Structure formats: C-alpha cells, structure tokens
C-alpha cells in the first residue's frame, strides 16, 4: 500500500504545471549561471597565471634582502562555478612584509563584465530559492488538499496507517524534486565540460556528489515543513500563506540577517598585523 500511494502521488506531481515550470526554470537558470561563472573562472585563472609569472619575475630582479616582499597567489577553485562561496569576498594575493603577519588577502579589484549581470546567481542559489519554493508548492496541498476534496477520508478508510500515507507522499515528493535537482547538476557539468580551461579531478566529483546530497537534504527539509503545515491546517490557502512566510524567513531574512550580525560582531580584518618579534602562535 505504501508504494501504491507513492506511485500515485509521483505520477500526480509529474502531470502538474508546477513541475514542468520548475524543471524548465531550474535548467534554464543553471545553464545561464554556469556559463557566466565558467567565463568568470576562465578570467580569474588567466589572471592567476599572469600574476604568478609576474611575481616570479619580480623576485628574480631583487638583489637586496630588505627589498624582498614576496607575494602568495591563491589559485581559483574550479568548484566556485557551482557555488562562489567566500571567493568573491576575499582577494587572491597576499604580500609578505618584514615585521608583519598577513591575515587575509586584499579584496579583488578586477572587474568582470559577466558578474555585473549575475553577481551571486549560481547552482546552489537556484536550489536554495527555486527548488525550495517548488518543494513548498508540492507539499502545501498534499494533505489538506485531499481533505478539502474528500479523498483523504476514502484513503484512510482502507487498512493503511497514517504514517504510511505521509511516508508515501514524502517519497513521491522527494523523487519528483530529485529530477530537476539531478538534471541541474548534469546540466552544470555539461556546460563546464564545454570549456577547455575547466578540468575536474576525481576528488572534485566526490565533492559534487556531497553537494548534491546536501542540496537534497535542504530541499527535503522544506518538503517536510510543507507536509507538517498541510497536515495541521484546514484550508489550502492558509497553509500556502504560512509556508510562504516561512520560506521568506528562512531563505531571505535569516541568511542576510545572519551575515549582517556576523559582520557587526566579528568584523573581517583585511590587512596585515604587526609582528615585531612576537611568536606566530601568540
């Protein structure tokens, strides 16, 4: 009975407009953002190679010890195409001065015309915004919708526990949400492989797999939240309104407010700290 419920819910989700619209939107946004971020990675990698060679040439021309100020360059991460992370906040070069301990690299000042169009959009952002909203749209009427139509009473008239009904709906919902999520990752990999500069190692595929797993858990949390509200409310409109408030709270307000508070509590220092003979561990 469990798999019968899951199959029925799965086929029902596949035939809805929201599934098709969410699938097309995810693939379209991921394709565009991956293309933009791939071009940005190519630019940053080219700048990294130029800086490394330039800094090597500078060291060769130094003949006085007191004038030695080597630079350390950070290679751009290829997985930043999936998620920019902190790469856009910190720079790529640290200059080593005598008597000072470098803490963070200086901010990157080179402008990228592609990033002016999509400053933060990446695959993880698409999952956090689009797929989380799609999970809510799948779950908000899973229980209360059948309650309003009267089909829930018919289902519960059979010898099937309520937990299996909810479990079947959960399995079907996660299976449907896995399709746009998986296709988004595959699309991103295809777009990345079209670039001759991008080279993925074996370990990178393992990290991508972990990223996919965490994204699935993230989407699953929103779907479970939708099932909770759907089973505790009596009207679909009320359930959807409450879930949209929670979505705005967890996706928009909490991340930005947390970043704002973190900057105020522990501001980032982007300069060198005087050393003056102290030990590095002190």
Could you provide a short overview of the structure?
The protein is mainly alpha-helical and 282 residues long. It is built from eight helices and four strands. It has a two-stranded antiparallel sheet. The protein has a two-stranded antiparallel ribbon with strand order 3-4.
Tell me what you see in this structure.
- The chain has one domain (2-274).
- It is built from eight helices and four strands, in the order ααβββααααααβ.
- It has helices at residues 2-14, 17-60, 123-139, 144-149, 151-156, 162-193, 202-232, 236-265, and strands spanning 71-73, 93-95, 100-101, 273-274.
- The chain has a two-stranded antiparallel sheet with strand order 1-2.
- α1 packs across α6 (162-193) and α3 runs antiparallel to α6.
- The longest helix is centred in the first third of the chain and has 44 residues, at 17-60.
- The protein starts with a helix and ends in an 8-residue tail after the last strand.
Low-confidence stretches: 107-111, 113-119, 270-282
Task: Report the span from N to C terminus.
Answer: 65 Å
Number of helical segments with 4 or more residues = 8
Overall structural domain count: 1
Helix content: 55-70%
The backbone outline, from C-alpha atoms, is elongated
Let me know the largest β-sheet.
Answer: 2 strands, antiparallel
Helix vs. strand class:
mainly alpha
- Provide the gyration radius in Å: 25 Å
- Give the overall average pLDDT: 82
């Amino acid at each position: 009975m469990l798999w019968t419920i899951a199959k029925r819910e799965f086929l029902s989700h596949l035939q809805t407009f929201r599934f098709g619209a969410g699938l097309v939107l995810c693939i379209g946004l991921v394709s565009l953002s991956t293309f933009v971020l791939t071009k940005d990675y190519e630019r940053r990698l080219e700048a990294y190679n130029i800086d490394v060679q330039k800094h090597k040439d500078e060291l060769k021309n130094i003949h006085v010890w007191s004038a030695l100020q080597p630079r350390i360059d950070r290679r751009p991460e290829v997985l930043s195409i999936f998620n920019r992370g902190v790469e856009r906040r910190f720079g790529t070069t640290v200059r080593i001065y005598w008597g000072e301990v470098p803490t963070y690299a200086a901010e990157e000042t080179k402008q990228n015309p592609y990033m002016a169009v999509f400053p933060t959009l990446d695959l993880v952002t698409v999952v956090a915004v689009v797929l989380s909203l799609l999970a809510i749209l799948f779950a908000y009427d899973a229980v209360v919708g059948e309650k309003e139509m009267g089909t829930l009473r018919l289902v519960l008239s059979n010898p099937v526990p309520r937990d299996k009904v909810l479990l079947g709906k959960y399995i079907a919902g996660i299976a449907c949400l896995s399709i746009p999520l998986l296709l988004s990752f595959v699309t991103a990999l295809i777009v990345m492989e079209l670039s001759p500069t991008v080279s993925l190692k074996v370990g990178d595929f393992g990290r991508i797999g972990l990223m996919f797993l965490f994204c699935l858990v993230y989407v699953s949390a929103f779907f479970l939240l939708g099932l909770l509200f759907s089973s505790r409310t009596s009207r679909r409109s009320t359930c959807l309104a409450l879930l949209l408030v929670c979505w705005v709270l967890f996706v928009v307000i909490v991340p930005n407010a947390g970043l704002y508070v973190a900057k105020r509590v522990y501001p980032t220092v982007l300069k060198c700290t005087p050393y003056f003979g102290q030990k590095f561990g002190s």
